Amino acid sequence: MSTIIKAILKINPNAEVSVSGDDINSIVWENGTTPISKADIQAQLPIVEFDMSMEELRTKRNSLLAQTDYLALSDQTMSAEMTTYRQALRDITNGLTTVEDVEAVVFPEKPEV
Questions:
Q1: What pTM, to 2 d.p., does this model score?
Q2: Fewest beta carbons less than 10 Å away: which of 8, 9, 31, 44?
Q3: What number is the average pLDDT over the span 58-66?
């Protein structure tokens, strides 16, 4: 889904719209959807870009956590290093407010099992 459509849906979740590529000048409002000004849509773009960056970060973080989930089972004893690693992964999104913050994230190194 294009960032333009995501921005429109942040403003009006029920909007029916099509866009050619990611060109704001190609918006077609469908089925009686009230048009939204280009300025309002453009104001949402940084928010949409941040949301998309956070979604990618969380996907990677969740994958890394899933790789060590077996160590958190009740019949396993997790090392302090692994506990710290997993907590660092869970905390990795704290305090991020911009796309630049997200892009600057450095994932912790996984300790030996």
A1: 0.83
A2: 31
A3: 97
